[in-house]
Design brief:
Elements lengths: L1 H8 L14 H5 L3 H22 L1 H4 L8 E2 L2 E2 L21 H37 L1 H16 L2 H13 L5 H31 L3 H8 L4 H13 L3 H22 L11 H7 L1 H4 L5 H28 L13 H12 L21
Antiparallel strand pairs: 1-2
Helix pairs in contact: 3-5, 3-14, 5-6, 5-8, 5-11, 5-14, 6-8, 7-8, 8-10, 8-11, 9-10, 11-12, 11-14, 12-14
């Protein structure tokens, strides 16, 4: 008996498996078009983050500088050796504004998504777990916010926060908060609906029986089981945040021009240039917006495909797991009426019985 136990338990207490590089498991779970989308989106996002972080080193001039060494750049200068992307109607270097605009966009995105998660997720947990009057009030408030057009709501909040005056940090924070108000209802609704479906599961009931407090149950037992969709939602909201920030700047309700470079504001100033054949002041900020939004959206869609079992076959052949299971069941079931294709048995006759 001891020999049998030794053989059965041999190798069970081996060294713990080594952890691979973060993200490798996610990449291996993709294939075909899905993997191409993920890699392409990650490449764009990596370039965007690198440019945003290194903007002071990469930009040849300051984002609001119109002269260097006492020499004025000149307005609406065409792209050339001195200014690779040309200059704006105000005499600023377009390349420098595009690079510093990436830093502004990244800062606003990180702040907006982080604040939305910190506010929306706990509210959704509390509302879904406790229910009752508190749940009705929170649902009513978030539904009212969700009913407003997102850009209009962001404009109203931006005016209330900044009041037409903003410092560099205050302007970025005001833009982030105005975007946050738009996205908090989305996190609230997703987390609240999933919490309602999870709070009566057996593992939650077991935690209640053992005397765990509601706060511990919500954040240690319920939250890990309702947070699978949060990365996808955060990624997609990041792309929407870029568009909302650009819309605020284009309409004149975003960050003050003297506080930070912003792509939407540059597009607004480039409207008059487009009618005069001056294309470079609007093309480069517009291309930057399109590329970043496309990259973030590709990553979000790929994550959605990976985390959603119903979409995991995109870009590749469909799974045959169900068909294989049915075939095996047919081989093992004596009442199936016919044998599986892999069986070597012969049909039963009256003489065999």
């Amino acid at each position: 008996m001891s020999a049998i136990v030794t053989i059965e338990t041999e190798g069970l207490a081996g060294p713990p498996p080594r952890r691979g590089f973060p993200g490798v498991t996610l990449l291996r779970s993709t294939h075909g078009l899905q993997r191409g989308m993920l890699l392409g989106g990650l490449a764009v996002i990596t370039l965007f983050v690198a440019v945003a972080v290194l903007a002071p080193l990469l930009a040849p001039y300051g984002f609001n500088a119109d002269r260097a060494g006492g020499v004025i750049f000149g307005t609406q200068q065409a792209p050339g050796a001195a200014h690779l992307f040309g200059t704006t109607v105000g005499g600023q270097d377009v390349l420098s504004r595009v690079l510093f605009g990436a830093r502004t966009a990244l800062t606003v995105i990180v702040l907006a998504v982080a604040i939305s998660l910190v506010v929306g997720v706990p509210l959704g947990l509390v509302s879904g777990y406790f229910g009752g009057v508190l749940d009705r009030i929170l649902v009513l408030i978030t539904d009212a916010l969700y009913a407003f057009p997102s850009l209009l709501l962001a404009i109203v909040v931006s005016i209330m926060i900044s009041g037409g005056r903003s410092t560099p940090f205050g302007g970025i924070l005001a833009a982030a908060i105005s975007i946050t108000v738009v996205y908090v209802p989305q996190y609230f609704r997703v987390v609240r609906n999933l919490t309602v479906s999870v709070k009566n599961e057996p593992f939650v009931e077991s935690a209640r029986i053992t005397g765990a407090r509601p706060g511990r149950i919500m954040f240690r037992h319920v939250l890990p089981n309702v947070s699978q969709t949060l990365p996808v939602l955060a990624t997609l909201n990041a792309s929407e945040a870029i568009l909302t920030l650009a819309g605020l700047g284009f309409l004149g309700f975003g960050i003050e021009p003297s506080a930070a470079a912003e792509w939407g504001y540059d597009l607004n100033k480039a409207l008059a240039d487009a009618t005069n054949g001056i294309w470079w002041t609007g093309v480069y900020p517009g291309v930057a917006i399109v590329l970043v939004v496309a990259g973030v959206t590709l990553v979000g869609e790929s994550l959605n495909d990976v985390l959603n079992p119903m979409l995991r076959t995109r870009g590749g052949g469909t799974s045959t797991a169900d068909e294989d299971e049915i075939a095996i069941a047919g081989d093992l079931d004596p009442a199936a009426g016919e044998l599986g294709s892999g069986s070597d048995a012969t049909p039963t006759t009256e003489d065999d019985r």
